Amino acid sequence: MRKVPPALTFDVHPNQITSWKGQLLDGAAGVFGLGAAGSTAPPAVDLKTLHAKIGELALENDFLSGALSKAGMLSAKR
């Protein structure tokens, strides 16, 4: 089986790939938080809100699984 270069597979000009590679190498540190632009602190997480949402979703799942099993639409296997 013959290996086809990605440029031919996706109909992208090799110069465009070289340009994208240069942009990635220039800006990769900023994308992954290692550059000066990415040095801001992460936003604070409100655990109370997250726990409330988890509880809400758990209740919805329990309700729906009970309703579906009563209707015979939920199989015993998961």
Q: What can you tell me about this protein's structure?
A:
There is one protein chain. The chain is an all-alpha fold and 78 residues long. Helix content is 59%, strand content 0%. It is built from three helices and no strands. It has helices at residues 6-9, 14-31, 47-70. The protein is flat, with a radius of gyration of 25 Å. The relative contact order is 0.05. The mean pLDDT is 81.
Strand content: under 5%
Structural class: mainly alpha
What separation lies between the terminal Cα atoms? Answer: 41 Å
Q: With helices defined by DSSP (H or I, 4 residues minimum), what is the helix count?
A: 3
The radius of gyration is 25 Å
Summarize the structure.
The chain is mainly α and 78 residues long. It has helices at 6-9, 14-31, 47-70. The longest helix is centred in the last third of the chain and has 24 residues, at 47-70.
Distinctive features:
mainly alpha
Compile the SSE list and pairings:
Elements: H1 6-9, H2 14-31, H3 47-70
